[in-house]
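DM2 domain-containing protein
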Amino acid sequence: MATIPMLTAASLSFSALPVPRLGAAPPAASFASPLRAVAAPVVRAAAASSRSPTAPAAPKKKRATGITLPKPVSPALQAIVGAPEIPRTEALKRLWAYIKQHNLQDPADKKVIVCDEKLKVLFAGRERVGFLEVAKLLNPHFVK
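Predicted structure tokens:
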């Protein structure tokens, strides 16, 4: 029967290479390849020059698409938003500004809009409209 040798601290061998510690300085330049030593300053210089505050990059203006594309609106919606052609997002903003300016939200439940005469025409004659229904009820007023 074969015996299995036991491991002891004396029988374990440790490497002669240093173990890197967290937060320790990088290895000496003698261990780094010559290509790395030359390329690093060039990359840093290029990165530093791209962040210079003297030449601010102008933001590119995106072309309007979808709900940000101006569309012609009905005369009823035009009476509230004040423009013959407007994007859907801007129409909703102006409609909510009109509602808040004329204090048309129900004081007990701010999610409900109490319609005045202009809004009744806009919302198919309804007296009260929930805020989630507003976008749906505006759909027919955007001419396609």
